[in-house]
Amino acid sequence: MSSTFESSPDELRGVLIQVVGARLLLPNACIAEILSVADPDPLPDMPDWLLGRIRWRGWQVPLIAFSALLGSGIPDGNLRSQRVLILKALGGNPRLPYFAMLTQGFPRLVRVEADALVAAGQEQSGVAGVPVIFQGEEVLIPNLEQTEARISEVLEQLPGS
Q: Which of 25, 38, 66, 103 qualifies as a FRET site for 127, CA 20 to 30 Å off?
């Protein structure tokens, strides 16, 4: 008997998540855990998209609002109604093996077949990513490496870094 979400060579498992003003499509393999959010420890003089750090399995993980990086808005003040994705960092920085992203609601596991994505425009500048049409709606495949690099740049400016 095969699982509903078993992947074949022509498909990947993905996760659709909602952020303020956008839906994101991420590879399932980059998600380490999904948590209820607790108030982050604030960081001094940080951009509005870097909400602070949260504690997770002995790590101080930076928490970002990806929607603020997109310019589509900052989540409302009630963080407790949201979820946090702990993402595995891709850049190999031993000081940043994970980062966290604020989401609205629960992520939805999806199968992404090789021909299921249709380009919906050019890659957006900065850290955003590539807009695509998936299952009849526009979603963004975020550039996680650029996002991670931007987080690293900001954190390096902290005193004692």
A: 38
The answer to whether the beta carbons of residues 24 and 66 sit under 8 Å apart is yes
The answer to whether 145 touches 88, Cβ cutoff 8 Å, is no
Decide if 63 contacts 84 (C-beta within 8 A).
yes
Kind of pairing between the strands at 50-56 and 137-142: unpaired
pTM: 0.85
**What pLDDT does 23 receive?**
93
For 147, phi then psi, to 5°, come to -60, -45
The Cα 52–Cα 100 span in angstroms is 10
3-class DSSP assignment, residue 32: strand
List beta partners, residue 63.
Answer: 52, 100
